[in-house]
Write a sequence for this structure.
């Protein structure tokens, strides 16, 4: 057991710290998704490892209980938006770190066009300019579920929202 006030580590560090190929890949992911530290990548890798380990375990056995657990795992990943609707358990083995990183609030804000860069999206989230279903969320690592994608927007009292509206109106008038 541990101390109740001290959270357990949610990631595994790399086994070899100075692997050039791994460092290059991590730098590419950090740049692409606007991540602050490598720890965020390691958390996503650990999630993927856990899902793949569970899928391998469930593929190895066929009982009534494992059939239910298979469906639960697939439903969890589909609801999280990590897998598609018609996914099978074998698809879990093909998961990558990028599948998880795409579901972060920071990435969704950038992809939705509310920010110009992924790093700017991170700043908007951390500073409380972004809301999900009219609720302010200030954690860029929040994993957006499938039904919540359309509910992402600016917080109602955010000054950034006014700037965004002015910018989009200006673009629309220039296009016409």
């Amino acid at each position: 057991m541990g101390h109740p006030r001290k959270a357990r580590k949610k990631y595994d560090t790399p086994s070899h710290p100075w692997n050039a190929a791994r460092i290059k890949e991590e730098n590419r992911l950090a740049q692409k998704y606007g991540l602050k530290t490598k720890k965020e990548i390691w958390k996503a890798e650990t999630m993927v490892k856990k899902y793949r380990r569970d899928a391998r375990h469930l593929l190895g056995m066929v009982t009534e209980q494992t059939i239910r657990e298979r469906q639960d795992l697939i439903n969890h990943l589909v609801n999280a938006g990590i897998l598609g609707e018609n996914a099978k358990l074998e698809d879990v083995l093909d998961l990558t770190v990028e599948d998880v990183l795409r579901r972060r609030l920071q990435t969704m804000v950038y992809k939705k066009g509310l920010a110009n860069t992924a790093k700017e999206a991170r700043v908007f989230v951390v500073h409380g300019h972004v809301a999900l279903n009219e609720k302010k969320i200030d954690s860029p690592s929040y994993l957006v579920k499938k039904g919540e994608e359309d509910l992402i927007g600016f917080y109602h009292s955010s000054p950034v929202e006014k700037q965004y509206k002015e910018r989009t109106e200006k673009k629309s008038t220039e296009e016409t």
